[in-house]
Amino acid sequence: MNEKMKFNVTNLNLFYGDFQALHDINLNIPENKVTALIGPSGCGKSTFLRTLNRMNDLIDSVKITGNVSLDHADIYSAIDVIKLRIRVGMVFQKPNPFPMSIYDNVAYGPRCQGIKDKKELAEIVEEALKGAALWEEVEDRLHKSALGLSGGQQQRLCIARAIAMKPEVILMDEPTSALDPIATQKIEQLMDNLKKEYTIVIVTHSMQQAARISDKTAFFLMGEIVEYGDTDQIFTHPTDKRTEDYITGRFG
Asked: Of 20, 140, 228, 230, whose CB is crowded by the most CB atoms within 10 A?
C-alpha cells in the first residue's frame, strides 16, 4: 500500500548566521501518521520542526536553502505564510494558554478568521475541546480562566486551540516534557486518536514515547538525519550503529 506523503523535504539546509544547524535534510512525512523526531539536545530536531510552518522566518539571521513542500506545493514560494500556519498548527513544549477564558482561548483563532456567529463559535469550541479529550472536564467552566487548569489540561487546551483552526498537520515540540506521567498518557492516547484526521510530527526526548506513539521515526544527530524509517524497524533493527548506540543509551 502506497502511503500518501504530506510533506516532501529535499536538500534542506538551514543557517543561523554562519552556523549551519541543518545539513542536507531529505525526509518525506506521510499523511495521517505520527512521525517522531528523536536525537540528543541541540541536534536540530526542533529547528527542523519549525521549518515545516516557517516559524524560523521570525529569526533575523536565518537562511534556508532546499525545498519543503506541503501537498507538493513549495511552502516558501507557493503558499502564503499565514495560510500555511492555519494548515500547519503548532503545540509547544510548555503549555501556553492565553490569559483569558477557556472558551475564548479556543474561539480566538476562528474569530481572527472572521467567524462572529455565536452559535457557530460555540460548535467549533465544543468540537475542538472534544477532539482534545477535554470537553467533559471543562464544559461547566468554559468562561473561567484557562490559567486555572492543570498543566496537562492546559496542554490539551493548546491542542484544542490548534484543532479549532481545522489544520491538516499538527506539529508538537516535546508536548509532554513538562507534564506528569498521567497527563503524558492522556496526550499520547489523544495523538493516537488525532492521527485519524491529522498528520502529526512530534519532537520527543523520550525514546519510550517515540516507540509507543509513532509510526515513523527520524534520528537526528549534529543537524543531520542519520536514519529514518518505520518506528519498529528503527527500534529493533537500526541499520546505523549511531542509531543503535543512541537508542540503547550509550550516548545522548
From this structure: 228
CA dihedral 196, 7, 244, 238 (to 10 degrees): 80
Buried b (16+ CB within 10 A) or exposed e, 139-176: eeebeeebeebeebbbbbbbbbbbbbbbbbbbbbbbbb
Q: Which residues on adjacent β-strands are paired with residue 199?
A: 169
Beta-bridge partner residues of 69: 8, 74
Cell numbers linked to 150: 492543570
| Cα separation, 72 vs 8, whole angstroms | 7
Candidates 204, 168, 203, 184; CA nearest to 32 is 168
* 248 DSSP assignment: T
Beta strands in the chain (DSSP E): 5-16, 19-30, 34-38, 62-70, 73-74, 88-91, 169-173, 199-203, 216-221, 224-230
Cross-strand pairs, 218:
37, 228
- What is the pTM (predicted TM-score) of this model? 0.95
For 114: left if phi > 0, alpha if psi spans -120 to 50, otherwise beta; the answer is left
36-85 confidence digits (pLDDT tens)? 999 999 999 999 999 999 999 889 899 999 999 999 999 999 999 999 99
Structural domains of the chain sorted by starting position, each given as residue range(s) with its CATH number in brackets: 5-98+167-247 (3.40.50.300)
Of the candidates 94, 128, 96, 93, the residue with the CA atom closest to the CA atom of residue 111: 128
Rg (CA), the chain: 18
